[in-house]
Structures are given as structure tokens and as C-alpha cells.
Specification:
heterodimer, A: mainly alpha, 9 helices, globular, B: two-stranded antiparallel ribbon, 14% strand
């Protein structure tokens, strides 16, 4: 459906604007979540998210539906923007994470949940940056494996395999922490 | 069943860890989305907040402006290069055409024949003020050696001074006129040529008329026309019949004229000196020696006078070759009415010039574009490598 809407953008600017608006509405928080997980810096993530949407908006007429889904295209732009930001700041992907905000998930939930999520967060930190990115794209941004593969420039089966390995490693890290 | 539950739990925990944007940020982003994501300024904050900076200045955004101007600037550069190339090509084409006109076979032959009588044109060095003797009587200017004074041009004097001297150039003019006529009209046209020449105080040096069929019947006239009346004479000759071609040429003969005048003055001074020596001679043998030298110098002076007169005549009288042709116009002459063939020929020339301009422009822009392309590809590859490196 989105593919169709963006394809229309080539024919009518107004329809293109509408299609992009829908893409924006459906992806805004996902893009932020993905970018924030890469940057580990909320203000920078806001900057980069806004810049990514601006860049995508400027390039919206160049989007080719035959080369992939609109969300994969948008996340590709966001990924480049985030990596550029990291490059600019001379920071590596293995940045020390911002301390997990325990208050965000520990207040109304039980202590067991809080501890478990803290353990997951710590385990996530111990993963390779690329593995962390896979998990962010899958569970923070909610991409399908097909879209995820398109963003990373790998095959869908390869993406599935890598994701499975990352999850296995994460689980082991969680178990180790426990 | 336990592992499945663990898996679901892990996914649930991950989703719970998902970063969420601040409501203020999402509201601001929504506004920008509604406004079509207007470009944000990349100017420094102090610049943005400075009260003296006008809104218009802030909206300039130099980086974007530069990028936006790149394509129009490139286009303008290409147009400028093409225009300059076209001007250069046109000038070169024009000058070569002029040379062809001046040097058409018949005209050159005619001019060479006229010059063969006496050709004293040395390659002199210019020396101002050395031509008093060469000047016609009544002219007192030190640079009046040139009897015919036409053509205004700048002259480089010694010590590099450039002075515009519009009235002291000796300019030799020549022209060639080709008329098209019916065979039956050749005789009448020839008579009119004679009338026109006499009406303008000209001289017919040689003439020949041949009657016959179209292409065979023809006439040829080698004329000398006073340079001051050349324009009128050509107009009168052109009115006789259909003009198929008309070429005019000029040659500046100021330098040889001035040089001969200088030599003449030297010779006069030498003669005066010899006359003084003759008066002072005491012995017969001494007198004879001086007289021999005096005779030789006088002969030399006579030759110089002759040369100077010849140069004056070349400037005073313009050589004109008139040919009357019958039959179809010669393609190479370019005369006659402008038709389809001429249009096609002209179009071909225009296309050739345009192709030449394009080749020149490509020769200039090609390497620049190639370098820019390589630089862009290198930058792109470097950026991609750096992005990969960021994630380890």
C-alpha cells in the first residue's frame, strides 16, 4: 500500500506529499528509536531523526519503488545520517551507553521486571555494534526481515541468520548476567 | 515450551527498552512535517540570534545557496566558453576569408604584374622626420612623405610610444570586380567600363574583350583609379551589370615610403657634401675623383626618386581588376542571388563552427568534469568506508 502511495508521488506532487506524510506518521517513532539506539544520545538522536526526514523529504521524488519498500528506503537514509553523525563526532559505535533509565520501566512494574530489563540492557551493551543494530532495526524499529536486509544491503536469509545469532548471543549474555 | 516462553519474554523486554521520543520533539517534528520540512539554517547560533542580522540574511544559507548556484554557474561558464570560442572561431574565419579575398588568384597575378616594374620595397626601419625631401611641395610636415593619406591606425613609434596618426599613412588599395552579363551585352558593358574609368580620371592599363557563346564571351580590364575616387568608381562599375563578386584589399606601404624618403635625404646630404669637396679640390685628379663619386651618387638619388614616385603612385592610384563573365555564375565566386545552395552551404558552415565550438568546450570541460567525477567517486567511497568503520 505504501509502495503504491509513494509511486504516485512521481505523477502528482500533491499525492507524493500525502504519501510521504503517511510514511512519516507511520515511521517517526521507529526512526527515532533506531537512531537513538545507534547514537545513545537523545538530543543527537532528535537532530539526526529530523535531518533524516528532511533529507528523505527532499529526495522523495527519487524514490524507486522497484528497489524496495519505502520504510527500508527511509531507514537507509536514517542509518547513513546516524553513521555520519557518529563519524563527525569521532565516536565509535561501542560508545558507552547512557545509563538505562530505570524509572522508565521500573516504577509501576515489579522489581523482577526491572532487574530483568536492566540485565537485557546490559547484555545489549555487550553485543557487537552490528548485532546491536540488527536488534534495534528488528525490535525497536519493527522492520520485517526483508526490510532489514534492504537497509543493511544483505540478503534476506543472511539477515535472518545474523538476527538469530544476535538473539542467541543476547540470550546467553542475559543468562550469564543472571 | 520453556525456551519459547523465554524467547517471548526477551522480545517483550527488548520492546520495553525501545527508546521513545520526547513529546515536545515529536510535536516540533510534526510541525516541520506539516510545513514541508523547511530547511534549517546551518549558521552558528550567535549569527542566528544576532539582532542586526536581518531575516533575509539568515535565510540566505550560504552552503545551500552555493550548491544551488553550482548548476546555473556551471551553465553560465559553459555558455561563456562557447561564446568566446564562437567569437574566436568567427574572427579566425573572417580573417582567413579576407586573406582569400585579397589573394584571389586573378587579383594577385594582376598585382604582381604591376609591381614587377620596380619593386624597391626594402624592409626598412621606421625613422620619423626623415622624409622632408620626399614630401610633395607645399607640405611641410616632417612626416608627410606619404602622399596618399588614408586609413586611420595606431602606429608604434620608437621607445614604445603608441600614437594614433590618422592622416599620414600610405595605403595601397586594390579591388576585383566580377560582373555577370549576357553574351550580347559584353560589348556594351565594356564600353560602359571605359566610360566609368574616364569619368573618374582613371587609366585602363590593359583590356581584352572576347565575344561568343555563354561562358566564352568575356572581358577583362586592368585599371588604375585614383584612390580618392575608388569608392565612386567601384559603385559606377558595379552598376554596369549584375555583380557576381567584389573583393577589396588594402596594404599599408608607409614603412617603405618613409624609408625611401630617408635614403633620399641622405643622398641629398651626400651630394651637398661632394659639391663642397669639389669646390675645395685643388688638383685635377682630386676633382675627377669627386666628380665620379658625385655622378654615382646622383644616379643613386635618381633611383631613389623613382622608387618614391612609384610608391606614391601605388598609394595614389588603386589597382582594379574588372572581369565580365557570361554563363552560369561560378560557385566559388559567391556572387549572384542567394539561393538554396547558398543556404545549405551557409548552414554547413554554421554547423561546422558550432561543432568546432563544441569540441573546444568539451576539450576544456571534459578533463574538469573527469576530475570532478573522480573526486566525487573517491569521496563517496571514503564516506562508505568510514560508515562501515564506525560500526566496527
Amino acid at each position: 500500500m505504501e509502495q503504491m502511495l509513494v509511486a504516485e508521488a512521481k505523477d502528482a506532487p500533491r499525492a507524493g506529499d500525502l504519501a510521504f506524510d503517511r510514511l512519516y506518521r507511520s515511521s517517526r517513532d521507529d526512526v527515532y528509536a533506531y537512531v537513538a539506539s545507534l547514537l545513545r544520545d537523545a538530543p543527537a538522536a532528535e537532530e539526526v531523526t529530523a535531518a533524516a526526514f528532511e533529507r528523505a523529504y527532499r529526495k522523495r521524488n527519487r524514490f524507486d519503488p522497484e528497489r524496495g519498500e519505502p520504510r527500508a528506503w527511509l531507514f537507509g537514509i536514517a542509518r547513513n545520517a546516524a553513521l555520519d553523525e557518529l563519524r563527525r563526532r569521532g565516536r565509535q559505535a561501542e560508545l558507552t551507553a547512557e545509563p538505562a533509565d530505570l524509572h522508565s520501566f521500573g516504577a509501576e512494574e515489579g522489581a523482577e521486571h526491572s532487574e530483568r530489563r536492566l540485565a537485557v540492557s546490559a547484555a545489549l551493551e555487550r553485543l557487537e555494534p552490528r548485532e546491536r543494530e540488527l536488534i534495534a532495526l528488528k525490535f525497536f524499529a519493527g522492520l520485517e526481515n526483508r526490510e532489514l536486509a534492504r537497509v543493511l544491503g544483505i540478503s534476506e536469509s543472511n539477515a535472518g541468520t545474523k538476527l538469530h545469532r544476535a538473539m542467541t548471543k543476547l540470550r546467553e549474555a542475559c543468562d550469564g548476567a543472571a | 515450551m520453556e525456551p519459547r516462553r523465554d524467547e517471548d519474554q526477551l522480545v517483550a523486554d527488548l520492546r520495553a527498552l525501545r527508546p521513545t521520543p520526547r513529546p515536545e520533539f515529536t510535536a516540533e517534528l510534526d510541525e516541520r512535517a506539516a510545513a514541508g520540512f523547511p530547511r534549517r539554517s546551518r549558521l552558528p547560533h550567535w549569527f542566528e540570534s544576532a539582532p542586526v542580522i536581518s531575516t533575509a540574511m539568515r535565510n540566505k544559507r550560504p552552503a545551500h545557496l552555493g550548491r544551488r548556484l553550482l548548476i546555473p554557474a556551471g551553465g553560465l561558464a559553459i555558455i561563456a566558453i562557447a561564446a568566446v570560442s564562437a567569437v574566436v572561431a568567427t574572427n579566425e574565419g573572417g580573417s582567413s576569408a579576407g586573406e582569400n579575398n585579397a589573394g584571389s588568384a586573378s587579383t594577385l597575378g594582376f598585382l604582381n604584374k604591376l609591381d614587377s616594374d620596380s619593386q624597391p620595397d626594402h624592409s626598412p626601419s621606421y625613422s620619423p622626420g626623415a622624409t622632408e625631401e620626399a614630401a610633395p611641395a607645399g607640405e611641410s610636415s616632417s612626416s608627410s612623405a606619404a602622399p596618399s593619406t588614408a586609413g586611420a591606425s595606431a602606429e608604434i613609434e620608437p621607445f614604445g610610444r603608441s600614437v594614433a596618426r590618422p592622416h599620414n599613412r600610405a595605403v595601397e588599395r586594390s579591388a576585383e570586380l566580377v560582373l555577370g552579363a549576357d553574351p550580347a551585352d559584353v560589348a556594351d558593358d565594356s564600353a560602359e567600363v571605359f566610360e566609368a574609368v574616364h569619368a573618374h580620371d582613371g587609366i585602363v592599363l590593359r583590356s581584352s574583350t572576347r565575344e561568343g557563346e555563354p561562358g566564352v564571351a568575356a572581358a577583362r580590364f586592368e585599371l588604375l583609379i585614383p584612390s580618392a575616387k575608388l569608392g565612386d568608381a567601384l559603385a559606377a562599375l558595379s552598376a554596369i551589370d549584375e555583380v557576381r563578386s567584389r573583393h577589396e584589399a588594402t596594404a599599408d606601404i608607409t614603412a617603405p615610403t618613409v624609408n625611401v624618403g630617408e635614403l633620399l635625404q641622405d643622398s641629398k646630404a651626400r651630394i651637398d657634401s661632394l659639391l663642397a669637396q669639389l669646390e675645395a679640390a685643388e688638383t685635377e685628379s682630386e676633382r675627377e675623383a669627386v666628380e665620379a663619386e658625385l655622378r654615382q651618387e646622383r644616379r643613386h638619388r635618381a633611383r631613389l626618386r623613382s622608387q618614391l614616385q612609384h610608391l606614391q603612385r601605388r598609394a595614389d592610384l588603386s589597382r582594379v581588376l574588372v572581369r565580365i563573365e557570361t554563363g552560369a555564375a561560378d560557385e566559388s565566386s559567391g556572387g549572384g542571388a542567394w539561393g538554396i545552395d547558398d543556404a545549405l552551404r551557409d548552414a554547413g558552415k554554421v554547423l561546422a563552427v558550432a561543432a568546432a565550438v563544441t569540441v573546444v568546450a568539451l576539450a576544456i570541460l571534459g578533463p574538469i568534469a573527469l576530475i570532478a567525477l573522480l573526486a566525487w567517486l573517491a569521496h563517496r567511497a571514503w564516506v562508505r568506508r568510514e560508515r562501515r568503520r564506525v560500526l566496527g
